[in-house]
Amino acid sequence: MNIKGLSTTLILLLWPVALLSQSYQVKVIDSVTKEPLELATLRLLKNDYTLFSNNKGSFDLKLTQEEEAEISYIGYKTKKITVAKKDTLVNLVSQPNFLSEIVLEKTVNYTHSKKIKSENRPDQYFGFQFGTENCTYIPNKEKKKGKVTSIMLYHKKLRSMNFVDSALGRDKNCKGCKVDYLASYKISFYEYDSKSKKPGAVIYDKEIIVYPKNASGKFSIDLDSLSVPFPANGICVGVELINTKYNEPKSTFAFIGPTLGFYEYKENGLPKSWIRYRNEGWEFSHVTTRYDKGKRSNAMAVDISIKN
């Protein structure tokens, strides 16, 4: 037996495996202070796969080829990069005046707790693709500033044999359908811009990522340990479906659980719900449906608990 030839053959066979399993690091820092940015978001544009940086500002990636990516962090300008098969250092530039003038004082002693329930209970449930954000406006009728302690969403389990037909407003049998993926949520908070009648500046500067199960019922998110302000003119709550688990997900017609609860409301010239998509300009738009009785819209059902 030619041992030398066999060894050479094994090395050649294992070489592609070594290449596939090789990890590369992308590190994100503040362009001025050079401090690492923890929980920055890296999104591969090809498949919307999303990662979050560790406490050293680093992402660990396994690549077989160059990938186009987008790196974002609240309070900084989003940056597009090409992730090559080498370690990369990325400087993010802060955005002056990115946040509104709303400031939550850490020394405030709140004396009242209150729960603001959704205007109506959800009567429809919809599923969305990765990279879709729904946003609902929660008014502050007392005009008293405070802090958000929790929010609650409404879910319905996405089942293998049925899906929500948005045209009919009910479950429809689908023999070939199956649950493809389970979503993670990125929760964002915006001030309400009364001039444009849509969400304005981001008012909380940390990433909030939660991991719901594909189940029916209420999904509560505890925020009491955070400093999420509740402005005098209300708040807009955004829920984006993000991919934190799958390398090559479908970009269209994917069945992603769970579904989110919505209710119908009459607009009367004051929209309270919006939607936007990462692959379509990432601008909030309001969708309405005309009925015989007037213009109506669907809003994501959100309960919110506050202290003031």
Explain what you see.
- With 308 residues, this protein is mostly beta strands.
- It folds into two domains: 3-92, Immunoglobulin-like (Sandwich), CATH 2.60.40.1120; 113-307, Jelly Rolls.
- The chain has one helix spanning 3-20, and strands at 23-30, 41-44, 50-52, 58-62, 67-72, 79-83, 88-92, 113-116, 124-126, 132-138, 146-156, 162-165, 170-173, 181-182, 184-193, 198-202, 208-210, 217-222, 228-230, 235-242, 256-257, 259-266, 273-277, 289-291, 294-300, 302-307.
- The strands form six sheets. Strands 8, 9, 11, 18, 19, 22, 24, 25 and 26 form a nine-stranded antiparallel sheet that branches. Strands 10, 15, 16, 17, 20 and 23 form a six-stranded antiparallel sheet that branches. It has a four-stranded antiparallel sheet with strand order 3-2-5-6, with no helix packed on it.
- Mean pLDDT is 80; it is low at 1-21, 97-105 and 161-171.
Keywords for this structure?
308 residues; mainly beta; Immunoglobulin-like; Jelly Rolls; 2 domains; nine-stranded antiparallel sheet; six-stranded antiparallel sheet; 1 helix; globular; CarboxyPept-like_regulatory
CATH topology value of the largest domain: Jelly Rolls
How much of the sequence is in beta strands?
Answer: 35-45%
What structural category do the secondary elements indicate? Answer: mainly beta
Number of strands: 26
Instruction: Name the average pLDDT.
Output: 80
How many helical elements?
A: 1
Uncertain residue segments: 1-21, 97-105, 161-171
Give the assembly state of these chains.
single chain
